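Action item from last week, closing it out:
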Amino acid sequence: MSGLLRDLFKDYRFIIAFGVVLALLSLSLLSIFSPFDPQRALQVPRAQPPSWQYLLGTTWLGQDVFWQLTHAIRNTLAIALIASLTSRVIALLIGLVAGYRGGLVDRILMSAGDTTLVLPSLVILILASIFLREWLRDLVNLGLLLAFFAWAWDARVIRSQVLSLREREFTRVSILSGMGTFRLVVKQYLPFILPIAFTTLINNMSWAIGMEVTLAYLGLGIDPSVPTIGNMLQVAIFRQALFMGLWWWLLAPVGTALLLFVSLYLLSVSLSEYLDPKARVQRIGLR
């Protein structure tokens, strides 16, 4: 583990992205100590610019932007993690079973995946948000709905990897030595598959954050009184923050969303290059 981290920290992109993600996670943890209820208005003076007393200013509704942002980061990351982890579990199960069993099982599972891939996810999410409005007011439910659209491509990638592993010599040796299917998959295949699942988890988190912001901007998604990055952005735009000169109200969610997207992208690129043997040799040299 120490060797892995040492190699990753040789990449300046990983250092920057790791630092930004760590800072945002620390901000989200600060929400535990928030002196204000994030869903109540008129707790502080309205429309105050950033100052030592109010680090990111206050909103027209009388809310402290800094403390509201700590709750928003926490809730948005929670939605992204629920969607990503659930979809990774589905992708792993379907990819492993389809790749190892092959035949009719493979065709059925991949047909289900291909059908999910071609669905217009944003349109269906908007329709689901309209018809399941009450159910989707909870952030856990939104995370589970996003997970339904996020597993198919990664299941196909995992299946391809398993198909390749199944033809290797160690698979035949393991089977001939009496190793069961479950042990073979866990002991021999998962070490090759887990890095793929981890890299795609980061990409999937970025996608889920984008979907949360998009749905909230359209006035859909979870309860609008619960602070998320998307809900903060939607309220600031709806209340015409820029026209009222409250630029800090809009800048806080926009800047945070950009930082999240860029840092997750850099983390994904850095990890992907590290896990690719050719790129790793070019980056850290032969040992």
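Closing note: The two ends are 17 Å apart (CA to CA).
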